């Protein structure tokens, strides 16, 4: 069988599984099985893709045999392969977690098909080499996320969903505008072809204008400062499994798009564009962590921390040195696993205590020491405590900042790390350490959490593994960063070396 | 013609943003519809306006002789229209449900999650 | 059913009974015509969805639901299976993913009939559009209904 098919598998598998699952709408048992088999098969495909990518370099698939600048191409370079693998891991964790936690009335409204569709959209966005196709995949994952977000139909969900839908549609319209202008400038949609032709455009100011439009569109998706308000308004409202996959993947699609576009296409006026990125990164870090300090609901604190972590990832792109990009890729790998895990732990806390409010929680350390450990591992990793994954991610970025003499960015990154630790300790003290407040809230689901412990436990193990075996992960990130810094590799792979 | 289209697109964007900044959710949806239409027109204009020259290759020829309209831009717009149709249909249902649940269409009343 | 929706008119319901099969046939015509001429799965699906919506306006929500027999989301599912499945036959003849495949059937009286994966894809689109439009319409009608 053709090796290039591997690039299509992470997209076509969830689509097929989702479609079959949708035809069996009334058969919930079959849907659950399909969710588990489907996500595991995506994981297998993602692993194979990753392996091939590392062995053979960038893999390109010309869909429908239409040659490169004319047809749609699917491209898997190392960054894409890494993102697809992480998406698959998050997908498996969420699907398994959903088996226990998702209520039957949500299953009736197509919870599992939507989960598949969301994964198809995310993987499509990671793998496509065509800028308009990227827009299409963004819309696919948005529609799936809209529907997942409002399942349940409570007041808070509706209010959050309106903000989420509006700002994301605004961002899509800006994205479309930018594509239109870009197409007017260069007459191509293939990203590699665009990158090649942009150098020949006479009016470089126009190119910068289009770059700014892309920056705004993707920053809304990535929830960067000052365009993040939809995220804390909506991410804490749906079911925990949905929150976890959103937190792990959705904003990271925006970050991925920023990485792709600002390394491959808009790399000529780095002083201007990446300087703006640097400011945004720093302010995103700071506002996110300060917002978290003012919150007293577990999921809202975690939501604000997503924003501050996005800042670190953007910092890697903004500094635009080899080491900084390595740090950025490393950070994305660490963050997706840790963040999804924290939300899953929050779900366990809710199952054991019936609340997300810090005031009404307490005494979990005494009753469930295992859960306390499972919380501490990702929480300390998020804050950057050695030897967990977050320490190395932050360390590489800060070293890159020092080398680039971006002193104030380094200072703020360190300060934000400290404040993150404060925030995590706040949750630790309130939820685990202090005594149970009286009256204790009713417990909704007392037993049968073995599977959920297993899932969070394996994600926590991955966090430790990334920390302990940082060297191979670092090398992987280094290879990915090398590809990002040499866009000619990508262009040659897609269009053929001439 | 291009200037005229540019002015029209500008008006559409301005009207869309104005509607989105109003307090009523219904006007928000109207704003979103105008915005997606504006973006479609922009693609159409940016790809170059050609009048009365369909991109058809004559029998026996291999290429189009002379200038022709750009079919790719039209394909993009068609795709974008279909997508925005689907997404906006969803948004309308959502807002209908939201108005039922929240019992108001005033955005200022929807501050529960801020 | 609320009072403002209860506007059953004899002309509309008689007209709808006559129009419904015609509209469905027309939608199939558009679907099959779409390969070389204006038409196709999307527009055909919209016409079919409009036909069923007409049933909904002429009679009521329940009549339209019973006429469809299955849940509209299941139609979307079948459509997606067909559309995604249309990408696969190319793999068995060793061509790139999603490459169009053509088969010619020689029928005794009618002559030769050309079948292809784009046709399967288009039928998938048709079902997907019918299903998703009707999901939206039914959701809104259901809210009005209760």
Low-confidence stretches of chain A: none
Q: Main β-sheet of chain C: number of strands, strand sense, barrel status? A: 2 strands, antiparallel
- Cα shape of chain C: elongated
Radius of gyration of chain A using CA atoms only: 22 Å
Strand content of chain C: 5-15%
Total DSSP helices of chain A: 21
**Would you list the SSEs of chain A in sequence order as H and E?**
HHEEHHHHHHHHHHHHHHHHHHH
Number of strands of chain A: 2
Strand content of chain A: under 5%
Bulk shape of chain A: globular
| Count of individual helical segments of chain C | 6
Work out the radius of gyration of chain C. 18 Å
* Mean model confidence by pLDDT of chain A: 90
Derived structural class of chain C: mainly alpha
Q: Biggest β-sheet of chain A, characterized?
A: 2 strands, antiparallel
What structural category do the secondary elements of chain A indicate? mainly alpha
Helix proportion range of chain A = over 70%
- For the secondary structure, the number of strands of chain C is 2
Description:
- Chain A has 498 residues and is mostly helical.
- In chain A, 78% of the residues lie in helices and 2% in strands.
- Chain A is built from 21 helices and two strands.
- A two-stranded antiparallel sheet of chain A has the order 1-2.
- Chain A is globular, with a radius of gyration of 22 Å.
- Chain A starts with a helix and ends with a helix.
- The mean pLDDT of chain A is 90.
- Chain B has 114 residues and is mainly alpha-helical.
- Helix content of chain B is 64%, strand content 0%.
- In chain B, helix 1 packs antiparallel against helix 2 and helix 2 runs antiparallel to helix 3.
- Chain B starts with a helix and ends in a 12-residue tail after the last helix.
- Chain C has 146 residues and is mainly alpha-helical.
- Chain C is built from six helices and two strands; from the N terminus they run αααααββα.
- Chains in contact: A-B, A-C, B-C.
- The interface between A and B is large, with 39 and 37 residues.
């Amino acid at each position: 069988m053709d090796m290039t098919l591997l690039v299509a598998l992470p997209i076509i598998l969830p689509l097929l599984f989702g479609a079959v699952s949708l035809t069996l709408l009334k058969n919930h048992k079959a849907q659950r099985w399909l969710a588990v088999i489907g996500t595991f098969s995506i994981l297998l495909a993602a692993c194979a893709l990753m392996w091939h990518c590392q062995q053979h370099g960038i893999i390109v698939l010309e869909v429908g045999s239409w040659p490169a600048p004319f047809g749609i191409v699917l491209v898997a370079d190392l960054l894409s392969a890494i993102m697809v693998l992480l998406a698959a891991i998050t997908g498996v964790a969420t699907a398994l977690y959903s088996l226990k936690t998702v209520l039957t009335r949500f299953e009736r409204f197509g919870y599992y098909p939507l989960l598949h569709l969301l994964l198809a959209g995310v993987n499509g966005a990671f793998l496509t080499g065509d800028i308009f196709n990227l827009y299409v995949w963004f819309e696919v994952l948005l529609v799936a996320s809209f529907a997942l977000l409002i399942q349940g139909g409570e007041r808070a969900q509706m209010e959050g969903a309106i903000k989420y839908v509006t700002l994301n549609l605004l961002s899509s319209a800006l994205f479309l505008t930018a594509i239109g202008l870009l197409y007017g400038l260069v007459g191509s949609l293939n990203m590699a072809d665009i990158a090649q032709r942009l150098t020949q455009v006479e009016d470089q100011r126009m190119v910068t204008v289009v770059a700014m439009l892309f920056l705004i569109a993707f920053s809304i998706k990535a929830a960067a400062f000052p365009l993040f308000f939809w995220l804390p308004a909506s991410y804490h409202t749906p079911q925990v499994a949905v929150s976890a996959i959103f937190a792990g993947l959705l904003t990271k699609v925006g970050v991925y798009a920023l990485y792709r576009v600002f390394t491959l296409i808009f790399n000529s006026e780095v002083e201007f564009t990446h300087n703006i990125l640097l400011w945004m990164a720093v302010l995103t870090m700071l506002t996110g962590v300060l917002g978290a300090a003012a919150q007293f609901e577990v999921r809202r604190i975690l939501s604000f921390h997503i924003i501050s972590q996005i800042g670190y990832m953007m910092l890697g792109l903004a500094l635009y040195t080899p080491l900084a990009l390595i740090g950025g890729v490393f950070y994305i790998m660490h963050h997706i696993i840790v963040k999804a895990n924290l939300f899953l732990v929050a779900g366990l806390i809710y199952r054991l205590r019936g609340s997300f409010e810090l005031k009404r929680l307490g005494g979990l350390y005494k009753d469930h020491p295992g859960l306390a450990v499972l919380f501490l591992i990702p929480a300390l990793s998020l804050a950057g405590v050695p030897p967990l994954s977050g320490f190395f991610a932050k360390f590489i970025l800060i070293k890159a900042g020092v080398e680039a003499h971006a002193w104030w960015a380094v200072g703020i990154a360190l300060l934000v790390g400290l404040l993150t630790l404060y925030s995590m300790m706040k949750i630790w003290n309130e939820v685990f350490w202090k005594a149970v407040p009286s009256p204790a809230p009713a417990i909704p689901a007392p037993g049968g959490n073995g599977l959920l412990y297993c899932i969070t436990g394996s994600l926590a193990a991955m966090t430790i593994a990334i920390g302990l075996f940082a060297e191979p992960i670092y090398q992987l990130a280094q290879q990915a960063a090398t590809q990002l810094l040499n866009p000619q590799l990508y262009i040659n792979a897609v269009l053929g070396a001439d | 013609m291009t200037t005229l289209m540019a002015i029209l697109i500008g008006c559409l964007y301005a009207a869309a943003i104005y509607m989105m900044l109003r307090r009523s959710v219904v006007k928000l949806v109207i704003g979103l519809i105008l915005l997606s239409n504006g973006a479609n027109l922009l693609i159409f204009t940016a790809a170059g306006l050609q009048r009365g020259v369909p991109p058809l290759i004559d029998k026996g020829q291999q290429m189009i002789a002379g200038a022709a309209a750009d079919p790719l831009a039209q394909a993009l717009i068609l795709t974008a229209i279909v997508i925005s149709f689907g997404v906006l249909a969803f948004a309308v249902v959502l807002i209908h449900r939201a108005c039922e649940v929240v019992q108001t269409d005033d955005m200022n009343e929807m501050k529960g999650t801020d | 059913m609320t009072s403002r929706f209860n506007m059953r008119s004899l002309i509309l319901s008689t007209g709808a009974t006559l129009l419904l099969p015609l509209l469905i046939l027309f939608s199939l015509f558009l679907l099959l015509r779409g390969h070389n001429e204006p038409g196709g799965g999307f527009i055909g699906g919209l016409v079919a969805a409009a036909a069923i919506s007409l049933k909904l306006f002429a009679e009521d929500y329940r009549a339209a639901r019973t006429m469809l027999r299955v849940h509209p989301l299941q139609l979307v599912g079948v459509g997606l299976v067909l559309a995604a499945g249309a990408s696969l036959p190319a793999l068995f003849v060793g061509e790139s993913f999603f490459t169009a495949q053509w088969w010619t059937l020689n029928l005794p009286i009618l002559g030769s009939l050309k079948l292809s994966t784009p046709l399967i894809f288009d039928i998938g689109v048709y079902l997907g559009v019918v299903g998703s439009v009707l999901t939206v319409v039914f959701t809104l009608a259901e809210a009005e209904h209760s």
